[in-house]
Amino acid sequence: MMVFILFVVCCDLSLGRVDKASLSQQTLMELLIQNITNKEHVYGSGDATDIAKWKKVRMNEMHEVITIDWSCSQLKGAFDLRWLPISVIHFRISINYCTGSFDLTGLPDALENMWLGDNRYTGEISLTCLPTSLRSLDASQNAFVGSITLTQLPDMMVSLFLHVNRFSGSIDITKLPRKLKELDLGENPLHGETDFHHLPDSLMYMNLEKTNISGTIIRKNCDLYMEGSKVKIVE
């Protein structure tokens, strides 16, 4: 299988992207973790050539991977998201030691939950091409940088956690998803006057602590955490 994986990778690099639909679920999963250095934390003591026996991998009746939950698995290295099976609905890799960049473009259309918080990821991320089905994204407690665009989030999104990173610049929160309940941008060097007059009625929690964001917000039925920012809360 390893020879075949090397062949696929070489083809991808030299001839363009390989159609994921033409590859088996087993091959896709092996490609996904090819740069994880301690794969035994995924395989366990089971058979590495049978993903049905991998730790915390759930498959549907058609033997397609729908859930990957490798949180708190002490994983090191990087995931190659180009090979994340298109059937995956839940992908959770929080609280590990994963490094490198993290490309959020081209994710599976079926994806609903993506949790990668508390790792060692760096670089910029784009929030403008997320799957329309995505409900929850946690990219907190990493070292992501750059500006963040919050005006093109999926309509289905309920939770967005980006706290404790190095995001900078101003933010536009006038076009947040109407179903959004939780927004955490705290402990980022964000700044600038912000318009809080168009927040969704669904919002129940917002954290902007330890930022340089300014503006005035009217407290409604929402838990607001603004300590260390320049935001004024009006009761």
TrEMBL record:
Identification of the protein by name: Leucine-rich repeat protein
Coiled-coil annotated spans: none
Signal peptide (residue range): 1-16
Keywords from the UniProt entry: Signal
Entries under SUPFAM superfamilies matching the protein: L domain-like (SSF52058)
